[in-house]
Design a protein that fits this description.
Layout: E1 2-11, E2 14-19, E3 25-29, H1 36-48, H2 55-64, E4 71-80, E5 83-92, E6 98-106, E7 110-111, H3 119-124, H4 128-133, E8 136-137, H5 148-159, H6 167-182, H7 189-281, H8 287-321, H9 324-338, H10 342-379, H11 384-416, H12 424-472, H13 481-521, H14 528-536, H15 545-579, H16 583-641, E9 647-650, E10 656-660, E11 663-666, H17 672-690, E12 697-700, H18 708-723, E13 728-732, H19 736-740, E14 748-751
Parallel strand pairs: 3-13, 3-14, 8-12, 12-13
Antiparallel strand pairs: 1-2, 1-4, 4-5, 5-6, 6-7, 9-10, 10-11
Length: 754
């Protein structure tokens, strides 16, 4: 058997790595942590998979699942028995671990079934314990060949049965089996217990058959009432079908009524739409036109009334303004304003009157003085005539002053036009007030004139807007307002008649539409086509709804009672079934116990025969196989140690010891290098004994604890193994192996770091 190709898809730290070893010696080189042990574990995984039990098995699986995808997967192409095979195995980790394996024969791709054994055991003939104890050598597991499970596995392979290198242990196990069969806890052993169980099962079988008869009666009663339920259910369904048909007829009638209402609504809507189109073709104005024109005409009439009223008032005010009295008042008021106002003129007039009065007084005084001076001059002193003349001249001057003041006062009064006897200040104040009133009337007249002008302009604007409104509404433009009013009256009459008809049509449409909407709200949720399809599947209604309802209720009562009795029978049958044992199951248990009893009795006979034959088998093992293994291991060990010891000694328990000048010594008393040499020798001897085909040797740092001389000797052993047709895969992190194997023909060196 030879490995042709290894591919690590995902295994531990190895990902997408392919290796092609040679047919003889192949050296896998790489430093620590480069994947040497991982690659060796991949070969073991492909052959045997992961162990399923134990903490060590879980730890090994977790260690070998890929670091990226929690996956262990790879394939191996190898030759065995002259034929080529492809072995593929995948294991996916997660909440639940799943593992699959595929083995095909090349080149055709025919599937190979290995039965209950793994591909490794199928091709090498070695269970996984012997594979680890012979072919596969781990760095820290060289002494595994001396473990108990390997010894048992060797016995199984050599004797294809329950053999073991320890005959005494096998005899003890057989004796334990015999005691179990014949005597167990003082109650007679397994055979006696099986007999008791068989008697109990037969008693329970008789009771179960009686209960089965009662159960059959209740099941028959249940079937009877179930038949009544079925027939009454069919009758109930027939009546219910007619009730459903009646309900569907009612729903279809609702659809028909709604459809008729919808047609009426559509007809009314069509009539309304047609009449509105007719109104549009006649170009009848709408309500907005009449509202607008009415508003404009109202404003026009109000403007005309305002114009007439303002015109009359303006004429009256103009006539009042043109009277002579108003003209004189205006003139005097203007003169008064030019001369300082009524207060200053009145004060001037008062001063003139005061001066006139003072002049008259002084004239009288000077006249009296002149008269007195003249009298004195006549009587006493003529020179006093001069004084009398002065006084007389002063008196004349005062009189002239008084006359001048009187004249100016009269002229001033004449200028004001004040009537005689009237106080000048009062008269002038009243005159100024009258003038102010005249000015107010003038301002009001101006405002009236402006309002009159604005009213005329607004009236013209309104007239133009009114006449333009007719043109904008598609009507003939009137020539004047009177024509517009006549045309408006005619259009209003036509439009009113049209609106009344449109309102009547709208009311009809709204009434029909409301009726359709009300019926639509009460329509069934299912469309009419579906209702008709359902109605077609139902029978015709043969009676009134009230009669059909009465029949359905009567059938429902019968159904309820029959169902009640059926359930009672069913419950009783269920209760019986719950406590009653299955006769067939008990019969099968009786047959099983009978077979177990027969087998136990046969096993007891076989154990007795095996114990008799075991002594002969143990003697055969001692006299044949163990000496053969001992001789082969001793020869290899002598070559490795340069005959340092006479040889290896293998006992009945497959325990290894060394033959020394001081007698046999346990292998555990010697150095690690010596122990490794002994166990490596024992592995090669086992391979010669256990397998007719040369199996590949898988060695992981197997030489690490050997000195240079013993390592070189072991390399020669491996070279001879390869020359004899075997394959050796040697994994190392050192350089001396390559140096020792440098002259080996066909040596293949593979690096794990490239």
């Amino acid at each position: 058997m030879k490995i042709l190709e290894l591919y690590a898809e995902d295994f531990g730290k190895l990902h997408d790595r392919r290796f092609v070893p040679g047919e003889g010696l192949t050296l896998f080189e790489g430093p620590n942590e480069s994947g040497k042990s991982t690659l060796l574990a991949l070969i073991r995984f492909l052959f045997y998979g992961f162990s399923q039990r134990g903490a060590d098995a879980r730890e090994e699986r977790e260690k070998r699942l890929s670091w990226r995808d929690r996956l262990a997967a790879g394939r191996m192409r190898f030759v065995s028995g002259g034929e080529e095979y492809l072995l593929v195995r995948r294991c996916a980790g997660g909440v639940r671990t799943s593992e699959s394996v595929s083995l095909t024969r090349l080149p055709g791709g025919e599937r190979v079934d290995t039965g209950e054994v793994s591909p490794g055991e199928y091709f090498t003939g070695l269970p996984v314990e012997l594979f680890d104890g012979s072919v596969c050598v781990g760095q820290s597991d060289i002494d595994r060949v001396g473990k108990a499970d390997v010894r048992v596995a060797v016995g199984s392979v050599l004797f294809s049965g329950e053999g073991d290198f320890s005959v005494e242990a096998a005899q003890k196990r057989l004796d334990k089996v015999r005691v179990t069969l014949q005597l167990n806890r003082g109650r007679g052993g397994k055979i006696a217990e099986t007999e008791d169980k068989l008697a109990d099962v037969r008693r329970r079988l008789a009771a179960a058959r009686g209960q089965a008869e009662q159960l059959a009666d209740k099941q028959a009663e249940e079937r009877h009432y179930a038949g009544i339920v079925q027939t009454r259910t069919e009758a109930w369904r027939a009546v219910q079908a007619q009730l459903n048909a009646a309900d569907l007829d009612r729903q279809l009638a609702a659809h028909a009524a709604w459809r008729a209402a919808r047609e009426k609504a559509e007809t009314a809507e069509g009539a309304l739409t047609s009449f509105r189109a007719e109104m549009t073709e006649k170009h009848l104005p709408d309500a907005a036109f009449f509202s607008r024109v009415d508003g404009l005409l109202g404003e026009y009439d109000r403007a005309d009334a305002t114009l007439n009223e303002a015109g009359e008032k303006a004429r009256q005010m103009h006539a009042a303004q043109q009277t002579p009295q108003n003209a004189e008042t205006n003139r005097v008021a203007a003169w008064v304003a030019e001369n300082g106002g009524p207060e200053q003129i009145a004060e001037k007039y008062t001063r003139l009157l005061a001066k006139r009065k003072a002049g008259l007084v002084w004239a009288i005084v000077f006249a009296l003085l002149a008269a007195g001076a003249a009298a004195v001059a006549v009587l006493f002193a003529p020179p006093l005539w001069i004084g009398a003349g002065v006084f007389a001249a002063a008196g004349v001057g005062a009189l002239l002053l008084a006359l001048h003041c009187k004249k100016r006062a009269a002229e001033l009064r004449r200028q004001t036009g004040a009537p005689d006897g009237a106080r000048l200040d009062v008269y002038l104040t009243r005159l100024v007030a009258q003038d102010k009133m005249g000015q107010d009337r003038d301002e009001e007249l101006l405002r009236v004139d402006l309002a009159l002008s604005g009213a005329r302009e607004r009236q013209k604007e309104l007239e133009s807007e009114i006449l333009s409104a007719f043109s904008a509404a598609g009507q003939q433009r009137p020539d004047d307002i009177q024509t517009a009013k006549a045309l408006l009256a005619r259009l209003r009459a036509d439009a009113t008649a049209a609106w009344e008809k449109a309102d009547a049509l709208r009311v009809t449409y709204e009434r029909e539409n409301a009726a359709e909407t009300a019926l639509a709200k009460n329509l069934p949720a299912t469309d009419e086509a579906t209702l008709r399809a359902r109605r077609a599947e139902l029978p015709p209604v043969t009676g009134s709804v009230e009669e059909l309802t009465r029949q359905r209720d009567e059938l429902q009562g019968v159904l309820t009672e029959a169902e009640k009795r059926r359930r009672a029978a069913e419950n009783e049958a269920t209760a019986l079934a719950a406590v009653a044992a299955d006769p067939e199951e008990l019969a099968r248990a009786e047959a099983t116990l009978t077979r177990q009893l027969e087998k136990a009795r046969a096993d007891l006979a076989a154990v007795n025969m095996a114990m008799e034959a075991l002594a002969a088998a143990g003697e055969s093992l001692r006299s044949g196989v163990i000496p053969q293994v001992n001789d082969a291991a001793s020869a290899t060990f002598a070559a490795l140690t340069e005959n340092a010891y006479p040889g290896l000694l293998i006992g009945d328990g497959f325990a290894v010891s060394l033959d020394t000048p001081n007698g046999p010594q346990p292998i555990g008393r010697f150095s690690a290098g010596c122990r490794d040499a002994a166990y490596l020798s024992l592995r090669l001897a086992l391979l010669k004994t256990l397998s007719d085909e040369k199996l590949p040797l898988l060695l992981d740092e197997a030489l690490s604890r050997l000195d240079d001389e013993r390592a070189a000797a072991f390399v020669n052993v491996l070279r001879r193994y390869a020359e004899d047709g075997g394959q050796v895969l040697l994994f190392t992190c050192h350089k001396r192996e390559r140096q020792m194997l440098a002259d080996t023909p066909g040596l293949v060196c593979l690096s794990l770091t490239e």
